[in-house]
Specification:
Largest sheet: 5 strands, parallel
Distance between the termini: 75 Å
Strand content: 5-15%
CATH topology of the largest domain: Rossmann fold
Strand order of the largest sheet: 2-1-3-4-5
Number of helices: 19
CATH superfamily of the largest domain: P-loop containing nucleotide triphosphate hydrolases
CATH architecture of the largest domain: 3-Layer(aba) Sandwich
CATH class of the largest domain: Alpha Beta
Radius of gyration: 33 Å
Structural class: alpha/beta
């Protein structure tokens, strides 16, 4: 088991050796006899705690070394070593960032208690930073009032109160991470970290070290110890997006975390406990991947305790106006511009589009329209060409007309196209009704068989 590493900076080698003997059952100790060598060992070996002599006689004073350590590694806890005559100076050191202080003749139980508290403080700092980063992100509850999204909200409310793992499925951009965040914020863990990681965004050889952390020297470039997402999320929630992209080796390690609630850092032997709740998400069919041998069946059933499916935007288009209002206000606030408004015709275009990229695509289009439109009103001509094309394809026109002449030309084309579509729909119906018998169909509609054949050929029907 890899133990915490303590760096003792003291110019009294005999004292440092005595301290090492006191701590040897629980910690590994390294020494430095002045500030310069202490700083070098800090950068080279990444100790977990530093014991620093306040009254260094060689080189710089203990307070100067304290300031330099804090400028290099702000989060490493520093415990000052002092004698009774310098307690006031030790208190000053605490004001400058030291964790605590001990005397030259400490009580062993008290010494270990201070060290353990300093280790806990370091982990807490990591967690606090993560939580602060999450709180800075804009968050709103799930937007929409459609029946499809109401079911999702209902499932969120249920699973927020339980501790089981959650599997969120849905297309890319449909809002899976937002669902995960909402579960976390409604749970008892809401004041603990929410840590998200996209398994597809990292190379396969790095995903393990991101999840579980690594020790210094574990691989090329590992210049210092790094905490993994599970260690940072310890009592909070970890969100594993695109879980299907985990390779089989990482899947085995994740399975162990789910079963045993423990893991080791890459290159380490210290067993680390975690109580993080796991929420996973995927845009692929995991059961199909199980059948193909690309995803472990036992891991699948460990993750799929509480499944939630997020519907694509095309299946809840009635939510588009609400989403539009939200994103317009959010974007205008971020860009520091006056609120802009979409015309009724522009909203209809948005409603008619199928949104293969879902909510993320909708937000991108809204942002682009606001950026490129100088006027306060956004019309169909201000929308992205792909949305215009979808509408113009339906109407049978090639471009959105911008002049009276273009409008007349496109109107004629639209009438012709619409007529062909109506004609084709009618022929499909009548031929289906008479099971493909052209003669019977021709008699039924009152035209001769030859003319019906011409109409069928013109509409491209067999």
């Amino acid at each position: 088991m890899m133990r915490p590493l303590i760096l003792i900076i003291d110019d009294d080698s005999e004292f440092a050796n005595d301290f090492s003997i006191l701590l040897k059952n629980d910690y590994d100790c390294i020494f430095a006899n002045d500030g310069i060598s202490g700083l070098k060992k800090l950068t080279d070996l990444s100790p977990d705690v530093i014991l620093l002599d306040l009254m260094l006689e060689r080189g710089e004073s203990g307070l100067d070394v304290l300031d330099k350590i804090k400028s290099v590694e702000e989060d490493v806890p520093i415990i000052m070593i002092t004698d009774y005559a310098s307690v006031d100076t030790a208190v000053d050191a605490i004001k400058r960032g030291a964790f605590n202080y001990i005397t030259k003749t400490p009580n062993l139980k008290e010494l270990k208690l201070i060290i353990e508290r300093s280790l806990q403080q370091r982990l807490l700092k990591y967690q606090t930073k993560t939580l602060q980063q999450e709180l800075q992100k804009p968050f709103d509850s799930i937007i929409g009032s459609s029946e499809a999204i109401f079911k999702v909200k209902e499932m969120i409310s249920i699973c927020a109160d339980v501790e089981s793992t959650v599997m969120i499925s849905g297309e890319s951009g449909s809002g899976k991470e937002l669902v995960a965040r909402q579960i976390h914020l409604l749970s008892k863990r809401k004041n603990k970290p929410f840590v998200a990681i996209n398994c597809a965004a990292l190379p396969k050889d790095l995903i393990e070290s991101e999840l579980f952390g690594y020790e210094k020297g574990a691989f090329t470039g590992a210049d210092s110890r790094k905490l993994g997402k599970f260690e940072i999320a310890v009592d909070g929630t970890i969100f594993l997006d695109e879980i299907s992209e985990l390779d089989l080796h990482a899947q085995v390690k994740l399975l162990r975390v789910l079963q045993e609630k423990e893991f080791e850092r890459v290159g380490g032997t210290q067993t680390i406990k975690t109580n993080a709740r796991v929420i996973a998400a995927t845009n692929r069919n995991l059961m199909h991947l199980v059948e193909e041998g690309e995803f472990r069946e036992d891991l699948y059933y460990r993750l799929d305790v509480f499944p939630i499916n997020v519907p694509p935007l095309r299946e809840r288009k009635e939510d588009i106006p609400s989403l539009l209002n939200y994103f317009v206000q959010l974007t205008c606030k971020e860009l520091k511009v006056k609120n802009k408004y979409f015309t009724e015709e522009a909203v209809k275009l948005l409603m008619n589009y199928d949104w293969p990229g879902n909510i993320r695509e909708l937000q991108n289009h809204i942002t682009r329209a606001i950026l490129l439109t100088k006027a306060e009103i956004i019309t169909p001509t201000n929308l992205d060409f792909s949305i215009q094309k979808k509408e113009t394809e339906y109407l049978g026109v090639e471009i959105v007309p911008e002049t009276w002449e273009e409008m007349n030309i496109q109107r004629k084309k639209a009438v012709e196209t619409a007529a062909r579509k109506v004609e084709k729909l009618f022929l499909e119906f009548i031929l289906n009704k008479y099971e493909g018998n052209v003669s019977r169909a021709a008699d039924a509609i009152g035209i001769n068989r030859a003319n019906l054949h011409k109409m069928i050929k013109k509409c491209g029907l067999n």
